[in-house]
Protein backbone atom coordinates (compact mmCIF):
# COMPACT_ATOMS: atom_id res chain seq x y z
CA UNK A 1 0.00 0.00 0.00
CA UNK A 2 1.68 3.22 -1.19
CA UNK A 3 1.95 5.85 1.52
CA UNK A 4 1.85 9.27 -0.07
CA UNK A 5 4.09 11.84 1.65
CA UNK A 6 4.09 15.59 2.05
CA UNK A 7 6.83 17.59 0.33
CA UNK A 8 8.05 20.22 2.77
CA UNK A 9 11.33 22.16 2.68
CA UNK A 10 12.64 20.02 -0.16
CA UNK A 11 12.05 16.67 1.57
CA UNK A 12 9.33 14.02 1.56
CA UNK A 13 7.83 13.48 5.01
CA UNK A 14 4.83 11.89 6.64
CA UNK A 15 2.21 13.99 8.47
CA UNK A 16 3.39 15.24 11.86
CA UNK A 17 0.64 13.37 13.73
CA UNK A 18 1.22 10.22 11.70
CA UNK A 19 -2.42 10.09 10.56
CA UNK A 20 -3.40 8.92 7.07
CA UNK A 21 -6.66 8.67 5.12
CA UNK A 22 -7.69 5.99 2.65
CA UNK A 23 -7.26 6.85 -1.01
CA UNK A 24 -9.63 4.95 -3.31
CA UNK A 25 -9.20 3.66 -6.84
CA UNK A 26 -12.64 4.66 -8.22
CA UNK A 27 -12.60 2.08 -11.01
CA UNK A 28 -12.32 -0.75 -8.46
CA UNK A 29 -13.99 0.91 -5.47
CA UNK A 30 -11.05 -0.16 -3.32
CA UNK A 31 -8.43 1.56 -1.18
CA UNK A 32 -5.12 1.48 -3.03
CA UNK A 33 -2.99 4.04 -1.19
CA UNK A 34 -2.88 6.21 1.91
CA UNK A 35 -2.84 10.01 1.92
CA UNK A 36 -1.52 12.16 4.79
CA UNK A 37 -4.20 13.65 7.00
CA UNK A 38 -2.08 16.74 7.58
CA UNK A 39 -3.03 19.51 9.98
CA UNK A 40 -2.05 22.92 11.28
CA UNK A 41 1.45 21.83 12.30
CA UNK A 42 2.28 20.48 8.83
CA UNK A 43 0.96 23.66 7.20
CA UNK A 44 2.96 25.78 9.63
CA UNK A 45 6.14 23.86 8.76
CA UNK A 46 5.41 24.33 5.06
CA UNK A 47 4.82 28.08 5.46
CA UNK A 48 8.05 28.44 7.46
CA UNK A 49 9.96 26.68 4.66
CA UNK A 50 8.28 28.86 2.03
CA UNK A 51 9.06 32.03 3.98
CA UNK A 52 12.72 31.02 4.32
CA UNK A 53 13.00 30.25 0.61
CA UNK A 54 11.24 33.42 -0.53
CA UNK A 55 14.09 35.98 -0.27
CA UNK A 56 16.42 34.07 -2.58
CA UNK A 57 13.79 32.65 -4.97
CA UNK A 58 12.07 36.01 -5.45
CA UNK A 59 15.32 37.74 -6.46
CA UNK A 60 16.67 34.86 -8.56
CA UNK A 61 17.11 36.18 -12.11
CA UNK A 62 13.94 35.38 -14.08
CA UNK A 63 16.02 33.47 -16.62
CA UNK A 64 17.13 31.07 -13.85
CA UNK A 65 13.58 30.59 -12.49
CA UNK A 66 12.46 29.99 -16.05
CA UNK A 67 15.13 27.36 -16.67
CA UNK A 68 14.23 25.52 -13.47
CA UNK A 69 10.55 25.41 -14.43
CA UNK A 70 11.39 24.27 -17.96
CA UNK A 71 13.46 21.43 -16.47
CA UNK A 72 10.38 20.41 -14.48
CA UNK A 73 8.23 20.49 -17.63
CA UNK A 74 10.77 18.27 -19.40
CA UNK A 75 10.58 15.74 -16.54
CA UNK A 76 6.77 15.72 -16.75
CA UNK A 77 7.10 15.03 -20.48
CA UNK A 78 9.59 12.26 -19.79
CA UNK A 79 7.23 10.58 -17.27
CA UNK A 80 4.10 11.02 -19.40
CA UNK A 81 3.02 7.37 -19.34
CA UNK A 82 3.73 6.92 -15.63
CA UNK A 83 1.89 10.11 -14.68
CA UNK A 84 -1.03 9.36 -17.03
CA UNK A 85 -1.52 5.90 -15.56
CA UNK A 86 -1.30 7.30 -12.04
CA UNK A 87 -3.85 9.99 -12.89
CA UNK A 88 -6.20 7.42 -14.42
CA UNK A 89 -5.98 5.13 -11.39
CA UNK A 90 -6.50 8.02 -8.98
CA UNK A 91 -9.45 9.62 -10.76
CA UNK A 92 -11.12 6.78 -12.66
CA UNK A 93 -10.73 8.66 -15.96
CA UNK A 94 -9.67 6.81 -19.14
CA UNK A 95 -5.89 6.53 -19.30
CA UNK A 96 -6.02 7.73 -22.91
CA UNK A 97 -7.63 10.98 -21.75
CA UNK A 98 -4.96 11.46 -19.08
CA UNK A 99 -2.24 10.74 -21.64
CA UNK A 100 -3.69 13.09 -24.27
CA UNK A 101 -5.08 15.90 -22.09
CA UNK A 102 -4.20 15.99 -18.40
CA UNK A 103 -0.46 15.35 -18.40
CA UNK A 104 0.55 17.14 -21.62
CA UNK A 105 -1.40 20.16 -20.42
CA UNK A 106 0.39 20.04 -17.05
CA UNK A 107 3.73 20.28 -18.85
CA UNK A 108 2.32 23.01 -21.11
CA UNK A 109 1.15 25.02 -18.08
CA UNK A 110 4.64 24.96 -16.57
CA UNK A 111 6.36 25.74 -19.88
CA UNK A 112 3.92 28.54 -20.69
CA UNK A 113 4.54 30.47 -17.49
CA UNK A 114 8.28 29.69 -17.49
CA UNK A 115 8.49 31.57 -20.81
CA UNK A 116 5.73 34.13 -20.23
CA UNK A 117 7.63 35.44 -17.21
CA UNK A 118 10.56 36.31 -19.47
CA UNK A 119 8.28 38.78 -21.29
CA UNK A 120 6.27 40.04 -18.31
CA UNK A 121 6.83 43.77 -18.35
CA UNK A 122 5.27 46.58 -16.43
CA UNK A 123 4.44 50.08 -17.54
CA UNK A 124 5.59 53.69 -17.22
CA UNK A 125 3.48 56.86 -17.56
CA UNK A 126 4.98 60.21 -18.39
CA UNK A 127 2.83 63.00 -16.93
CA UNK A 128 3.30 65.88 -19.37
CA UNK A 129 6.84 67.11 -18.72
CA UNK A 130 6.20 67.10 -14.99
CA UNK A 131 6.77 63.56 -13.82
CA UNK A 132 7.62 60.01 -14.76
CA UNK A 133 5.64 57.17 -13.23
CA UNK A 134 6.94 53.64 -13.31
CA UNK A 135 5.11 50.53 -12.07
CA UNK A 136 6.90 47.63 -10.42
CA UNK A 137 5.31 44.21 -10.07
CA UNK A 138 6.93 42.22 -7.30
CA UNK A 139 5.97 38.72 -6.07
CA UNK A 140 3.36 38.83 -3.27
CA UNK A 141 5.26 36.39 -1.04
CA UNK A 142 3.98 32.94 -0.02
CA UNK A 143 1.00 31.85 -2.13
CA UNK A 144 -1.55 29.19 -1.10
CA UNK A 145 -2.74 27.04 -4.02
CA UNK A 146 -5.68 24.69 -3.54
CA UNK A 147 -6.77 22.43 -6.36
CA UNK A 148 -9.62 19.97 -7.08
CA UNK A 149 -9.96 16.30 -8.04
CA UNK A 150 -11.27 16.44 -11.59
CA UNK A 151 -8.09 17.44 -13.45
CA UNK A 152 -5.56 16.96 -10.65
CA UNK A 153 -2.09 17.65 -12.13
CA UNK A 154 -3.53 19.90 -14.87
CA UNK A 155 -5.16 22.31 -12.39
CA UNK A 156 -2.40 21.94 -9.77
CA UNK A 157 0.25 23.14 -12.24
CA UNK A 158 -2.14 25.79 -13.63
CA UNK A 159 -1.80 27.47 -10.23
CA UNK A 160 1.71 26.75 -9.02
CA UNK A 161 3.43 27.53 -12.35
CA UNK A 162 2.51 31.25 -12.51
CA UNK A 163 3.11 31.62 -8.77
CA UNK A 164 6.63 30.16 -9.00
CA UNK A 165 7.41 31.97 -12.26
CA UNK A 166 6.40 35.28 -10.66
CA UNK A 167 8.87 34.64 -7.84
CA UNK A 168 6.43 33.55 -5.13
CA UNK A 169 7.04 30.50 -3.02
CA UNK A 170 4.11 28.15 -2.63
CA UNK A 171 2.20 26.02 -0.14
CA UNK A 172 -0.08 23.82 -2.24
CA UNK A 173 -2.79 21.31 -1.36
CA UNK A 174 -4.22 19.00 -4.00
CA UNK A 175 -7.58 17.34 -3.40
CA UNK A 176 -7.43 14.52 -0.86
CA UNK A 177 -9.37 12.46 -3.41
CA UNK A 178 -6.57 12.65 -5.99
CA UNK A 179 -3.18 13.18 -4.36
CA UNK A 180 -1.05 10.80 -6.40
CA UNK A 181 0.25 12.88 -9.32
CA UNK A 182 1.10 15.82 -7.06
CA UNK A 183 3.11 13.34 -4.97
CA UNK A 184 4.91 12.06 -8.08
CA UNK A 185 5.46 15.69 -9.12
CA UNK A 186 7.18 16.41 -5.81
CA UNK A 187 9.64 13.61 -6.59
CA UNK A 188 10.33 15.37 -9.92
CA UNK A 189 10.95 18.62 -8.03
CA UNK A 190 13.62 16.86 -5.99
CA UNK A 191 15.13 15.36 -9.14
CA UNK A 192 15.12 18.75 -10.87
CA UNK A 193 16.91 20.35 -7.96
CA UNK A 194 14.18 22.84 -7.13
CA UNK A 195 15.56 24.76 -4.12
CA UNK A 196 14.08 23.63 -0.82
CA UNK A 197 11.00 25.47 0.40
CA UNK A 198 10.17 26.99 -3.00
CA UNK A 199 7.28 24.58 -3.48
CA UNK A 200 5.69 22.76 -0.53
CA UNK A 201 2.87 20.23 -0.96
CA UNK A 202 0.75 19.45 2.08
CA UNK A 203 -1.76 16.65 1.54
CA UNK A 204 -4.94 16.48 3.56
CA UNK A 205 -8.62 17.20 4.01
CA UNK A 206 -10.09 20.49 2.91
CA UNK A 207 -11.64 21.39 6.22
CA UNK A 208 -8.37 20.64 8.05
CA UNK A 209 -5.18 21.17 6.01
CA UNK A 210 -7.03 23.30 3.46
CA UNK A 211 -8.57 25.53 6.07
CA UNK A 212 -5.18 25.85 7.82
CA UNK A 213 -3.66 27.16 4.57
CA UNK A 214 -6.43 29.71 4.05
CA UNK A 215 -6.15 31.06 7.57
CA UNK A 216 -2.35 31.11 7.90
CA UNK A 217 -1.37 34.79 8.42
CA UNK A 218 1.87 34.49 6.40
CA UNK A 219 0.15 33.32 3.23
CA UNK A 220 -0.57 36.48 1.24
CA UNK A 221 -2.60 35.15 -1.70
CA UNK A 222 -5.02 32.26 -2.15
CA UNK A 223 -5.72 30.62 -5.50
CA UNK A 224 -8.61 28.15 -5.20
CA UNK A 225 -10.42 25.90 -7.66
CA UNK A 226 -13.36 23.82 -6.55
CA UNK A 227 -17.03 23.99 -5.72
CA UNK A 228 -18.93 27.21 -5.24
CA UNK A 229 -20.03 26.16 -1.75
CA UNK A 230 -16.42 25.61 -0.73
CA UNK A 231 -15.37 28.82 -2.46
CA UNK A 232 -17.75 30.69 -0.18
CA UNK A 233 -16.09 29.14 2.88
CA UNK A 234 -12.65 30.07 1.54
CA UNK A 235 -13.74 33.66 0.95
CA UNK A 236 -15.28 33.91 4.42
CA UNK A 237 -11.86 33.16 5.94
CA UNK A 238 -9.60 34.97 3.44
CA UNK A 239 -11.53 38.19 2.82
CA UNK A 240 -11.40 39.55 6.41
CA UNK A 241 -7.65 38.82 6.35
CA UNK A 242 -7.34 40.96 3.19
CA UNK A 243 -5.62 38.21 1.25
CA UNK A 244 -5.56 38.34 -2.55
CA UNK A 245 -8.16 35.81 -3.65
CA UNK A 246 -8.74 33.93 -6.90
CA UNK A 247 -11.78 31.63 -6.98
CA UNK A 248 -12.47 29.24 -9.88
CA UNK A 249 -15.71 27.49 -9.06
CA UNK A 250 -18.68 25.61 -10.50
CA UNK A 251 -20.64 26.04 -13.71
CA UNK A 252 -23.91 25.07 -15.37
CA UNK A 253 -22.81 25.94 -18.86
CA UNK A 254 -25.19 26.46 -21.81
CA UNK A 255 -24.40 24.79 -25.14
CA UNK A 256 -26.48 26.81 -27.63
CA UNK A 257 -27.19 25.12 -30.96
CA UNK A 258 -28.82 27.08 -33.77
CA UNK A 259 -30.56 25.35 -36.70
CA UNK A 260 -27.99 26.72 -39.17
CA UNK A 261 -25.06 25.07 -37.38
CA UNK A 262 -22.62 22.62 -38.96
CA UNK A 263 -24.64 19.66 -37.66
CA UNK A 264 -21.90 17.01 -37.62
CA UNK A 265 -19.38 19.31 -35.92
CA UNK A 266 -21.95 20.50 -33.38
CA UNK A 267 -23.05 16.93 -32.71
CA UNK A 268 -19.63 15.33 -32.31
CA UNK A 269 -18.29 18.19 -30.19
CA UNK A 270 -21.44 18.28 -28.04
CA UNK A 271 -20.93 14.62 -27.14
CA UNK A 272 -17.41 15.60 -26.03
CA UNK A 273 -18.50 18.74 -24.16
CA UNK A 274 -21.21 16.71 -22.39
CA UNK A 275 -19.35 13.58 -21.32
CA UNK A 276 -15.56 14.07 -21.46
CA UNK A 277 -13.98 13.10 -18.13
CA UNK A 278 -17.36 11.61 -17.16
CA UNK A 279 -18.79 15.14 -17.29
CA UNK A 280 -16.49 16.12 -14.41
CA UNK A 281 -15.12 19.29 -15.98
CA UNK A 282 -16.41 22.67 -14.79
CA UNK A 283 -16.51 23.74 -18.47
CA UNK A 284 -18.80 20.94 -19.64
CA UNK A 285 -21.91 22.09 -21.48
CA UNK A 286 -24.49 20.43 -19.23
CA UNK A 287 -27.50 22.42 -20.52
CA UNK A 288 -27.98 21.94 -24.26
CA UNK A 289 -30.27 24.54 -25.88
CA UNK A 290 -31.40 23.60 -29.42
CA UNK A 291 -33.38 25.74 -31.89
CA UNK A 292 -36.87 24.23 -32.16
CA UNK A 293 -36.68 23.29 -35.84
CA UNK A 294 -33.57 21.19 -35.16
CA UNK A 295 -34.66 19.82 -31.77
CA UNK A 296 -36.06 16.41 -32.74
CA UNK A 297 -33.28 15.35 -35.15
CA UNK A 298 -30.64 16.63 -32.76
CA UNK A 299 -32.06 14.76 -29.76
CA UNK A 300 -32.45 11.54 -31.75
CA UNK A 301 -28.84 11.57 -33.01
CA UNK A 302 -27.41 12.77 -29.68
CA UNK A 303 -29.10 9.93 -27.75
CA UNK A 304 -27.86 7.41 -30.29
CA UNK A 305 -24.27 8.60 -29.89
CA UNK A 306 -24.51 8.84 -26.09
CA UNK A 307 -25.64 5.21 -26.00
CA UNK A 308 -22.71 4.21 -28.18
CA UNK A 309 -20.10 5.58 -25.75
CA UNK A 310 -18.07 2.75 -24.23
CA UNK A 311 -18.12 2.78 -20.45
CA UNK A 312 -15.38 0.56 -19.17
CA UNK A 313 -12.12 -0.12 -17.50
CA UNK A 314 -10.15 3.15 -17.59
CA UNK A 315 -6.96 1.33 -18.63
CA UNK A 316 -8.72 -0.04 -21.73
CA UNK A 317 -7.83 2.28 -24.60
CA UNK A 318 -11.32 1.81 -26.10
CA UNK A 319 -12.97 3.29 -23.01
CA UNK A 320 -14.72 6.64 -23.51
CA UNK A 321 -16.12 6.96 -19.99
CA UNK A 322 -14.41 5.67 -16.88
CA UNK A 323 -15.51 5.78 -13.26
CA UNK A 324 -16.68 8.90 -11.46
CA UNK A 325 -14.48 10.04 -8.59
CA UNK A 326 -16.15 8.49 -5.55
CA UNK A 327 -19.10 6.54 -4.19
CA UNK A 328 -20.41 9.75 -2.63
CA UNK A 329 -20.19 11.62 -5.92
CA UNK A 330 -21.80 8.71 -7.80
CA UNK A 331 -24.70 8.80 -5.33
CA UNK A 332 -24.96 12.59 -5.74
CA UNK A 333 -25.23 12.14 -9.52
CA UNK A 334 -27.82 9.35 -9.17
CA UNK A 335 -29.84 11.51 -6.75
CA UNK A 336 -30.08 14.19 -9.46
CA UNK A 337 -31.47 11.59 -11.87
CA UNK A 338 -34.21 10.84 -9.33
CA UNK A 339 -34.77 14.58 -8.87
CA UNK A 340 -35.14 15.04 -12.63
CA UNK A 341 -37.86 12.39 -12.66
CA UNK A 342 -39.67 14.14 -9.81
CA UNK A 343 -39.40 17.40 -11.77
CA UNK A 344 -41.25 15.72 -14.67
CA UNK A 345 -38.17 15.21 -16.81
CA UNK A 346 -37.93 12.32 -19.25
CA UNK A 347 -34.73 10.26 -19.08
CA UNK A 348 -34.14 9.28 -22.71
CA UNK A 349 -31.08 7.18 -21.92
CA UNK A 350 -28.66 6.36 -19.11
CA UNK A 351 -28.63 7.67 -15.57
CA UNK A 352 -28.10 4.31 -13.89
CA UNK A 353 -25.09 2.84 -12.12
CA UNK A 354 -23.61 0.06 -14.20
CA UNK A 355 -21.68 -2.87 -12.81
CA UNK A 356 -18.77 -4.01 -14.91
CA UNK A 357 -17.22 -7.45 -14.72
CA UNK A 358 -13.72 -8.35 -13.57
CA UNK A 359 -11.53 -5.99 -11.56
CA UNK A 360 -13.94 -3.08 -12.03
CA UNK A 361 -17.03 -4.81 -10.66
CA UNK A 362 -16.96 -2.60 -7.54
CA UNK A 363 -16.25 0.63 -9.43
CA UNK A 364 -18.30 3.83 -9.56
CA UNK A 365 -19.66 3.80 -13.14
CA UNK A 366 -22.67 5.85 -14.31
CA UNK A 367 -24.26 5.61 -17.75
CA UNK A 368 -24.35 8.95 -19.62
CA UNK A 369 -27.79 10.46 -19.13
CA UNK A 370 -29.87 12.63 -21.49
CA UNK A 371 -32.92 14.36 -20.02
CA UNK A 372 -35.66 16.34 -21.82
CA UNK A 373 -38.96 17.90 -20.80
CA UNK A 374 -37.66 19.94 -17.87
CA UNK A 375 -38.42 23.56 -17.11
CA UNK A 376 -35.34 25.77 -17.22
CA UNK A 377 -35.94 26.92 -13.65
CA UNK A 378 -36.09 23.48 -12.03
CA UNK A 379 -33.25 22.38 -9.74
CA UNK A 380 -31.92 19.87 -12.28
CA UNK A 381 -31.36 22.81 -14.64
CA UNK A 382 -30.10 25.18 -11.98
CA UNK A 383 -27.66 23.14 -9.91
CA UNK A 384 -24.26 21.79 -10.96
CA UNK A 385 -24.35 17.99 -11.11
CA UNK A 386 -20.75 17.54 -12.30
CA UNK A 387 -21.35 14.14 -13.85
CA UNK A 388 -22.33 12.50 -17.16
CA UNK A 389 -25.75 14.17 -17.20
CA UNK A 390 -27.13 16.72 -19.67
CA UNK A 391 -30.52 18.26 -20.20
CA UNK A 392 -31.74 19.33 -23.64
CA UNK A 393 -34.25 22.18 -24.05
CA UNK A 394 -35.69 23.81 -27.21
CA UNK A 395 -35.75 27.55 -27.94
CA UNK A 396 -37.59 29.50 -30.63
CA UNK A 397 -35.76 32.81 -30.84
CA UNK A 398 -32.25 34.14 -30.26
CA UNK A 399 -33.60 36.22 -27.36
CA UNK A 400 -35.08 33.12 -25.74
CA UNK A 401 -31.78 31.26 -26.14
CA UNK A 402 -29.93 34.09 -24.40
CA UNK A 403 -32.54 34.23 -21.64
CA UNK A 404 -32.25 30.49 -21.00
CA UNK A 405 -28.45 30.61 -21.16
CA UNK A 406 -28.30 33.35 -18.52
CA UNK A 407 -30.95 31.82 -16.27
CA UNK A 408 -28.68 30.27 -13.60
CA UNK A 409 -26.52 31.66 -10.76
CA UNK A 410 -23.42 30.53 -12.65
CA UNK A 411 -21.47 32.26 -15.43
CA UNK A 412 -18.42 30.20 -16.31
CA UNK A 413 -18.53 29.19 -19.99
CA UNK A 414 -20.90 29.01 -22.95
CA UNK A 415 -20.72 27.39 -26.39
CA UNK A 416 -22.49 28.69 -29.51
CA UNK A 417 -23.01 26.70 -32.72
CA UNK A 418 -24.07 28.72 -35.78
CA UNK A 419 -22.69 29.44 -39.24
CA UNK A 420 -24.05 32.99 -39.00
CA UNK A 421 -21.19 34.82 -37.37
CA UNK A 422 -23.22 38.01 -36.84
CA UNK A 423 -25.51 35.90 -34.68
CA UNK A 424 -22.51 34.34 -32.96
CA UNK A 425 -21.01 37.72 -32.05
CA UNK A 426 -24.41 39.07 -30.91
CA UNK A 427 -25.10 36.07 -28.67
CA UNK A 428 -21.51 35.99 -27.37
CA UNK A 429 -21.83 39.61 -26.31
CA UNK A 430 -25.02 38.87 -24.37
CA UNK A 431 -24.31 35.61 -22.59
CA UNK A 432 -23.10 36.19 -19.03
CA UNK A 433 -20.10 33.85 -19.07
CA UNK A 434 -16.40 34.50 -18.63
CA UNK A 435 -15.52 32.16 -21.48
CA UNK A 436 -17.42 31.77 -24.79
CA UNK A 437 -16.58 29.26 -27.51
CA UNK A 438 -18.04 29.64 -31.01
CA UNK A 439 -18.10 26.46 -33.15
CA UNK A 440 -15.65 24.74 -30.82
CA UNK A 441 -15.25 23.66 -27.18
CA UNK A 442 -12.28 23.59 -24.80
CA UNK A 443 -10.08 25.14 -27.49
CA UNK A 444 -7.52 26.78 -25.22
CA UNK A 445 -4.97 29.56 -25.69
CA UNK A 446 -3.19 29.90 -22.35
CA UNK A 447 -2.68 33.64 -22.89
CA UNK A 448 -6.42 34.29 -22.60
CA UNK A 449 -8.16 35.30 -19.35
CA UNK A 450 -9.75 32.19 -17.82
CA UNK A 451 -12.56 32.28 -15.30
CA UNK A 452 -16.20 32.92 -14.60
CA UNK A 453 -18.59 35.54 -13.34
CA UNK A 454 -21.50 35.41 -10.89
CA UNK A 455 -21.14 32.29 -8.69
CA UNK A 456 -18.55 30.73 -11.00
CA UNK A 457 -15.67 32.75 -9.69
CA UNK A 458 -13.71 35.83 -8.77
CA UNK A 459 -10.70 36.90 -10.81
CA UNK A 460 -9.11 35.33 -13.85
CA UNK A 461 -6.30 32.84 -14.39
CA UNK A 462 -4.11 32.47 -17.46
CA UNK A 463 -1.65 34.71 -19.26
CA UNK A 464 -0.79 38.06 -17.73
CA UNK A 465 -3.86 37.78 -15.46
CA UNK A 466 -2.18 34.99 -13.51
CA UNK A 467 1.19 36.74 -13.28
CA UNK A 468 -0.53 39.94 -12.13
CA UNK A 469 -2.46 37.96 -9.50
CA UNK A 470 0.75 36.62 -7.96
CA UNK A 471 2.47 40.04 -7.99
CA UNK A 472 1.84 43.32 -6.22
CA UNK A 473 1.79 46.47 -8.36
CA UNK A 474 3.49 49.61 -7.06
CA UNK A 475 3.55 52.94 -8.84
CA UNK A 476 6.55 55.20 -8.28
CA UNK A 477 6.09 58.81 -9.36
CA UNK A 478 9.27 60.83 -9.85
CA UNK A 479 8.91 64.61 -10.17
CA UNK A 480 11.05 65.88 -13.06
O1 LIG B 1 -14.37 20.56 -4.69
P1 LIG B 1 -14.18 21.08 -3.26
P2 LIG B 1 -14.30 19.06 -5.11
C1 LIG B 1 -16.84 21.74 -8.31
C2 LIG B 1 -17.96 20.87 -8.70
C3 LIG B 1 -17.78 19.66 -7.80
C4 LIG B 1 -17.39 20.36 -6.54
C5 LIG B 1 -16.75 19.39 -5.60
O2 LIG B 1 -19.13 21.54 -8.34
O3 LIG B 1 -19.01 19.01 -7.58
O4 LIG B 1 -16.45 21.36 -6.97
O5 LIG B 1 -15.48 19.07 -6.13
C6 LIG B 1 -10.30 21.89 -0.74
N1 LIG B 1 -10.77 25.33 3.04
N2 LIG B 1 -15.68 21.70 -9.11
O6 LIG B 1 -14.66 18.13 -3.99
O7 LIG B 1 -14.84 20.30 -2.20
C7 LIG B 1 -10.42 20.43 -1.10
O8 LIG B 1 -9.66 19.63 -0.22
C8 LIG B 1 -9.79 25.15 2.14
C9 LIG B 1 -15.53 22.74 -10.08
O9 LIG B 1 -12.95 18.91 -5.72
O10 LIG B 1 -14.56 22.47 -3.42
C10 LIG B 1 -9.90 20.41 -2.52
O11 LIG B 1 -8.49 20.41 -2.50
N3 LIG B 1 -9.81 24.20 1.19
C11 LIG B 1 -14.07 23.01 -10.26
C12 LIG B 1 -10.41 21.75 -3.06
O12 LIG B 1 -10.70 22.56 -1.93
C13 LIG B 1 -10.88 23.38 1.16
C14 LIG B 1 -13.32 21.74 -10.55
C15 LIG B 1 -11.68 21.60 -3.88
O13 LIG B 1 -12.60 20.91 -3.04
C16 LIG B 1 -11.95 23.49 2.06
C17 LIG B 1 -13.59 20.75 -9.55
C18 LIG B 1 -11.86 24.53 3.04
N4 LIG B 1 -12.82 24.71 3.93
C19 LIG B 1 -14.75 20.76 -8.82
N5 LIG B 1 -12.88 22.52 1.76
C20 LIG B 1 -13.73 23.98 -11.39
N6 LIG B 1 -14.32 25.18 -11.43
O14 LIG B 1 -12.86 23.66 -12.18
C21 LIG B 1 -12.38 21.84 0.70
N7 LIG B 1 -11.18 22.34 0.34
Q: Tell me the CATH superfamily of the largest domain.
A: Aldehyde Dehydrogenase, Chain A, domain 1
Shape: globular
Our measurement of the CA-to-CA distance between the termini, rounded to an integer number of angstroms, reads 68 Å
Structural class label:
alpha/beta
Q: Write down how many β-strands occur, each being a DSSP E stretch of 2 or more residues.
A: 25
Report on this model:
- There is one protein chain.
- The chain is built from 15 helices and 25 strands.
- The chain is α/β, with parallel strands linked by helices.
- The chain folds into two domains: 2-249 and 456-479, 3-Layer(aba) Sandwich (Aldehyde Dehydrogenase, Chain A, domain 1), CATH 3.40.605; 254-445, Aldehyde Dehydrogenase, Chain A, domain 2 (3-Layer(aba) Sandwich).
- The strands form seven sheets. The protein has a seven-stranded mixed beta sheet with strand order 15-18-19-14-13-21-22, sandwiched between helices. A six-stranded mixed beta sheet has the order 10-9-8-11-12-24, sandwiched between helices.
- It starts with a strand and ends with a strand.
- The site of ligand TXE has 25 residues, from helix 7 and helix 8.
- Ligand TXE is lined by residues 146-150, 173, 175-176, 206-207, 210-211, 214, 225-227, 230, 233-234, 248-250, 282, 384, 386.
Topology:
Elements lengths: L1 E2 L2 E3 L2 E3 L6 E6 L4 E7 L3 H20 L2 H17 L1 H12 L3 H22 L7 E4 L3 E9 L2 E5 L5 H14 L3 E5 L6 H13 L6 E3 L4 H10 L5 E5 L2 H11 L5 E5 L5 E4 L5 H13 L11 E5 H17 L18 H16 L3 E4 L3 E2 L10 E2 L2 E4 L6 H4 L6 E7 L2 H8 L4 E2 L1 E5 L3 H10 L4 E4 L14 E2 L2 E2 L4 H7 L1 E9 L1
Parallel strand pairs: 1-5, 8-9, 8-11, 9-10, 11-12, 13-14, 13-21, 14-19, 18-19, 21-22
Antiparallel strand pairs: 2-3, 4-5, 6-7, 7-25, 12-24, 15-18, 16-17, 20-23
Bound molecules: ligand TXE.
The site of ligand TXE has 25 residues, from α7 and α8.
